[in-house]
Design a protein that fits this description.
Nucleotidyltransferase, domain 5; alpha+beta; 13 helices; globular; Alpha-Beta Plaits
């Protein structure tokens, strides 16, 4: 709705008085609005406030009244009307036309809430001027005086308010992550008293950690420093800057605007999203690609049918050739199909030069580094190489290396006497070197032994332990 204001220089705001009461209840349906008082039973003849479908009904009514001017000279949300024009001479005529239409439908205005022929006006919680949109200063003052939430209901109220203005907040998902974590299902909800509140009992206060209080304070400070967002101009080229981290993705939609005779890339909107648990396990490349897919989808009403190719900036160089890569996974094919709707070019830019980089990072949320077993892996590889040089087939059979389900790392147990059997040659004779009997997967699992691989050689038996990382479900190296 507010994107229609691009290029406007004059504004007039109108507020309808007793708007709902101007709509008549359909004949025969008045009894549905009946209510009881000590003076008797009464029913409404005009639509009251509070009915389920009252907002939708009045919106349809006001759209019909101003239908010929909608999105051309005015925008309407319920009883709030904003008239906009590109010059003062046209603006006066536009105001006259809208007032005449309101008079025909018997709609009255509350003059104390109206503003005429101005270059800056408050509308739907935003401060609007000729350059762009920013937050209403009164809303900012309310946030500055907001006390830390003491229960889940107060937290939901604060986050609901903040979410409405998230388009202005850089790093919103990153900053609000500790607060959002308190609303997770399961144990956390029980701890903060959500079930108690559902039974109409006052919820008990829940303790706020230092990280949560810092996040609450940082989110309040972000409101006070929220930037001016420019109006989107379909005639200007677009640039989308994206980045991803271990737990969030972020993006900035920018366009070029002239300031003091120079062109500058200025923000039109911010976007950030906290990754799902499954998405946090994606590889770096897929997370960076997901950031592009989600950002383009979020701004699809801008990106589809763009007059200029969209420049997408990323700090992951491999994504430059993504749309021309032949071998893709099923997930990547799905994303490529979504991106095919847009005309864009991916450009690499170093991470430290990418403004979106900060939308997805926070030091206290970095994932711990996994331990490595490179020394053990190298030892196993060397053992396999040495063993393969002396390998000779026995009875011309094709042997396959079979690995059972991996278990937690345990040392190979001592070989028992009953596991040592004579080494039989192809001619039926025996050698002096015993061989180690292969344990079946069931036996190894029952005995709690680590997985071992036995090479049955002609002259000797070699037993090698297959080493693996505890953090994976597959062998890390062979």
């Amino acid at each position: 709705m507010l994107d229609r204001l691009q290029g406007a220089k004059k504004f007039t705001k109108l507020d309808c008085k007793d708007a709902y009461n101007r709509v008549r209840i359909k004949g025969g349906g008045e009894w549905k609005t009946a209510f009881r008082t000590r003076f008797g039973l009464f029913e409404y003849l005009a639509m009251p406030f509070g009915l389920t479908n009252a907002p939708a009904t009045f919106q349809a009514f006001i759209d019909k009244a101003l239908g010929e001017f909608l999105d051309i000279t005015c925008v309407v949300y319920l009883d709030d009307i904003l008239i906009f024009s590109k010059n003062e001479s046209d603006h006066e005529e536009h105001v006259r036309q809208v007032l005449a239409a309101l008079r025909r439908y018997d709609l009255h205005l509350k003059i104390s809430k109206c503003s005429f022929n101005t270059t800056e006006v408050d509308f739907l919680g935003f401060r609007i001027n000729t350059e762009g949109i920013f937050m209403d200063p009164e809303r900012i003052r309310a946030v500055e005086e907001w006390l830390p939430p003491q229960d889940v209901h107060q937290l939901q109220v604060f986050l609901g308010f903040a979410n409405f203005f998230r388009r202005f907040i850089k790093n919103y998902s990153r900053i609000a992550a500790p607060l959002l974590n308190l609303l997770k299902t399961g144990k956390n909800k029980k701890e903060i008293g959500i079930k108690v509140r559902q039974t109409n009992v006052v919820p008990p206060p829940f303790p706020l950690s230092k990280i949560v209080l810092e996040a609450f304070k940082a989110l309040k400070e972000a409101f006070t420093s929220a930037p001016l967002l420019r109006y989107f101009d379909k005639n200007k080229p677009m640039r989308v800057e994206t980045d991803a981290s271990a737990f969030t993705i972020g993006g900035i939609l920018m366009q070029q605007f002239e300031i003091d005779g120079h062109l500058h890339w200025l923000p039109v909107a911010y976007y950030s999203k906290k990754l799902l648990d499954t998405e946090t396990r994606y590889g770096t490349g897929e997370q960076e690609l997901l950031a592009i897919v989600e950002a383009m989808h979020h701004w699809r009403h801008y990106c589809r049918g763009a007059r200029h190719p969209i420049v997408v900036l990323t700090d992951h160089a491999n994504l430059v050739w993504f749309m021309t890569t032949l071998n893709l996974t099923r997930r990547q094919l799905k994303w490529a199909e979504k991106l095919a709707e847009y005309d864009f070019n991916v450009t690499y830019r170093e991470g430290k030069k990418n403004p979106a980089n900060s939308l997805s990072r926070r030091p206290d949320y970095e994932l711990p580094k996994a331990s490595t077993t490179s020394t053990a892996a190298e030892t196993v590889q060397q053992s396999f190489r040495l063993g393969s040089n002396d390998y000779k087939p026995v009875q011309e059979k094709l042997y396959t290396l079979a690995v059972m389900t991996l278990r937690p790392r345990r040392p190979v147990r001592q070989v028992r006497q009953e596991d040592v059997v004579p080494n039989i040659n192809m001619d039926g004779g025996t050698t002096g070197t015993p061989a180690v009997r292969n344990l079946s997967a069931r036996e190894a699992s029952r005995n709690g032994d680590a997985v071992s691989v036995t090479y049955l050689l002609e002259k000797q038996a070699v037993m090698v332990m297959l080493w693996y990382d505890e953090t994976t479900s597959y062998p890390t190296s062979i």
